[in-house]
């Protein structure tokens, strides 16, 4: 009988401890969230600098967009992109979908993908397009004829 009482008492204490933990959770500290974001960026950089899918067995696998085609995509300052967003020419965005950093008004140079109207940091999208032929957001295929010059008249 004494053993049953001890087991019930231990179970009761364990249950109280679980309830205590449930109601006294702390949010994740800022520095842990920052470390997770840093690991995510490093993983993306690592993936961008290495072609994981072409290990020598698939010689016919297509590489990314050619540099000449990439240079035809317009490079704009963030202030110009904001003006295009107001005119509904460019899809609204405030951050690069590749590195997850917000665009800065005075310092960000952005490359616009004319086919789908998404914008990214120039360095981020150039590394992406070196290995892929699609937009990282909507997967629209970017080819030599995807430029659309009449869209950007001011």
TrEMBL record:
Pathway the protein contributes to: Protein modification; protein ubiquitination
Record-level GO cellular component terms: membrane
Keyword Metal-binding: yes
Major localization listed first in the record, in broad terms: membrane
Sample GO molecular function, one term: zinc ion binding
Matching Pfam families: zf-RING_2
Annotated protein name in UniProt: RING-type E3 ubiquitin transferase
Species this protein is from: Linum tenue
